[in-house]
Every structure is written in structure tokens, then in C-alpha cells.
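The following block was generated as part of the benchmark described in Methods. Ligand: adenosine-5'-diphosphate.
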Amino acid sequence: MLWTGEELQAALSARNADAFAASGISIDTRSIKPGDLFVALTAERDGHDYVAEALAKGAAGAMISRELGLDGHFLLVEDTLAGLTGLAAFARRRSAAKVIAVTGSVGKTTSKEMLRRALGGFGSVHAADASFNNHIGVPLTLARMPRDAEFAVLELGMNHPGEIAPLARLARPHVAVITAIARAHIGLMGSLEAIAAEKAAICLGLEPGGAAVLPADSAFFDQLKSFVPVAARCIGFGANESAQARLLNAASSADGCDVRGAIAGARAEFHLAAPGRHMAMNAMAALAACSALGLDIEKAAAALDGFLPFAGRGMRKVIEMRGGAAILLDESYNASGASLRAALEVLRLQPGRHVAVLGDMLELGEDERREHESLAAEVDASADILFACGPMMGFLFNLLPASKQGGYAADARALATIVQPALRPGDAVLVKGSYGSRMRDVVAALEAAHA
Ligand SMILES: Nc1ncnc2c1ncn2[C@@H]1O[C@H](COP(=O)(O)OP(=O)(O)O)[C@@H](O)[C@H]1O
Ligand SMILES: [Mg+2]
């Protein structure tokens, strides 16, 4: 049982003594399972309005912050988010798992999934679902952690100053990984230095004797290092000679990357079914974290062999059409300057005509126009034709030669109607933009049109 009644009582100073056990934790009645404890959070919606539905779907009980006059088992608390965080802290205390926390401007989810895979050969791994990386996602992931998990991998995200430290203190990692420092969310953070300082706050949660895994090629490496507690180890990953987890070679093809590395004296050679130097770097970060835990690196590297990127994060899809097929590179989940450059590198590796379909990158602040325009040369060097939507990508679009201006629209849905008829067999199509730009609508439309 994930939570006994006694543990729930001990973890929560609930105002009522209704002891009941729960086999899971849920905050969403759309995915709730019988036996779950439903936590009625008040975020965009008020979870209290869904308690009756949760109970009807077999929830063991609900954590609430006001009486609802319903029949069932309840834990009445002051604040349900504080309650969920209390469960998370208790789950962390009772756990003997080795905890790895991952943050960074890009590559968090990919590195977390690589770690889930690499650690899987050494024991049971509990890792965050999707991008559960904020003040709700992190405590939810911890509250769901099986008491006997041997490893836990958490993703810590932020887009405002001060968000990482409390998440790091809750996670109390043995290993803290920072994947990269880049201009994502710079509009809300102000500067790259501020982003680096915020990311470095992950070290504030490090367990005694823990280790920090840092990007050795980054201009911010020394700044990040200055945040590492003296009692903690510091492991650099990257291509430069000083890196303890050193990338020796990343030979990419259209659909994969042969990686060679040397990690703490061990050789690592594996093939990622995910092209691009950025994917090889994520793998080095994951292996550096494994070496920090003293694990067999060759075994961990072997587990990464064949790693495939996820939907919205580089997944490669085939679009069948009359006369042949096109390749779709689904990068629709998010975008910033660094990740767009990485995705353009992958587009350049593809055979056939290179088609870029780009939507706005968001949260870049007052420099957003310059951030977009600064990528025009790289888009021009990578794409034979560009389709764009959103005001900022419009500025980039206008900087491309007329021969490469495939089409522009105000939003993703409208753009999809222009892109779809323009595709040809043999094309390679990159679709990318921030989550809020809804480029997944273009992906869905292209897949539906050729299903
Ligand atoms: N190390 C990296 N450097 C640059 N871009 C990257 C890196 N890792 C992933 N990306 C790009 O960023 C996108 C999002 O990756 P993801 O792992 O979901 O990052 P995050 O969780 O930090 O948002 C990917 O689709 C890919 O294009
Ligand atoms: Mg993520």
C-alpha cells in the first residue's frame, strides 16, 4: 500500500481522525484510479468541485480544506497544496532511494527519461511523468513515490526567481544535475546570470556528501560551481578536456547519433535513436549522474542504446502521402533559441527538402523581436522553405529570401491549412514553437490529413 492511514495522519496534521489507506495520489478526476487519495487543489479550477466525482470513481478518500457535507473518507487540512507538500516531505523521509534532481534551461525531461532508462538496470526507478516540474508536479511525484523505490528522478522547473530552492529542499537530491544555461524564460528572469543563479539553487537541497553535475562547456560553469557546497563533489560533463564526463564524439545521422564518451575513466559507446549533439550531451549528463552514484558506467551506457525522443521533443514520425512519404520532426512541445538551434541541426541532417514550420518562442521579454530575428541566418542555412505563425516569427519570416517564404499565418491552426497542401513526398518537416503557440495543432493536422 502506498500510504497507510497512520502515515497519512502522521504526514498531515489533519483536523479529523478519519484513518484510511490509499494506493495512489491523484489531483485530476480524468486520470484517477480506484483506491487513490484525491487531493482537492485550488489552481485554475477548484478541486473541491470534483470530490464527489472522485469518490464515485472509487477514490479511497479526499484531502479537502473545507467541509463538503459528502459521505466518504476525508482528510481536512488548512491548505491542500501544503498538505500535498507534507506528503511529499514524508515520502522523501521514509525513502531509502537515491534521488537525482534535474534542472536546466533545456533538456530536463529528455535527461530525466535517459536517467530512468540508465538506472533501470540497477534497480526500481520512480521518475516524474512528462514535465511534472513545478510547485505541484514535484510534490505530486514525491507523494507518489513507492516506499521501496531504489532510485528517484525528479525534474525541477522554474520561470520566476525563487522557485528552484524550495523544490530542491523538498527533493533533497543525492545528485543535482544542471543540463544547460540558456535564454529560456529570460523575459521573466532578466538575464542569463539570473537564470544561472536560479538554476544553481538546486544545490541548496543537496544531501551531505552529494554531487553536482554541471555543464562544463557552459560560459556559466564557474558561476554554477561557486554555488556547490564545499562538502559536495562537482562533476563536469561536456566536450572540453576538464570534463570528468567527457563527450569524445557524437556522430549524428538523420535518425540517430553514435556517442563515444569517457566517464570517470570508463568508456561509454552507444547509439541514440535521437540525432543531434544536444541529445549526446543530455546522455553525458545522465551518465555523469550515474557515475556520481558509483554505478557501472558501461552497463548504464548500454541501457541508453536505442533511446528514442518523445512526442513533441524530437519524435520522428512518417507521414504517408500519394507518391511516397514525408518525415515529420515533432518538436512542438516547447522552444527557445537554444532548442531551436538544436532542432535546426537535426533538420540539416535529413535527406530531401528541408521544411521548417515555426511558431513564436514565448517568455523572451522585451528582446523577443531581436531573439527571433537573430535566428534568421540559421533558419536560412537549414531550411529550403519556411512556414511561420505568430507576430515574432513574422519578423524572422520577413528576413528570409522571398524564395524561401512558404507561407505565414496568424496562428498554428491557420498555418496548418497552408502547410498541408504544400508538402511533397521526400520532405523533412520540422515543427517547433513554444507550448503556448500550439504548434501541436499543426502536427495533429498533418497527421490527420495523411492518416
Ligand atoms: N541539451 C539540449 N540543448 C539544446 N536543446 C535541447 C537539449 N535537450 C533538448 N533540447 C531541445 O529542447 C526541447 C525540449 O526538450 P526537453 O527535454 O523537454 O527540455 P525541458 O524539459 O528542459 O523543457 C527538445 O525538443 C529539444 O529540441
Ligand atoms: Mg520538461
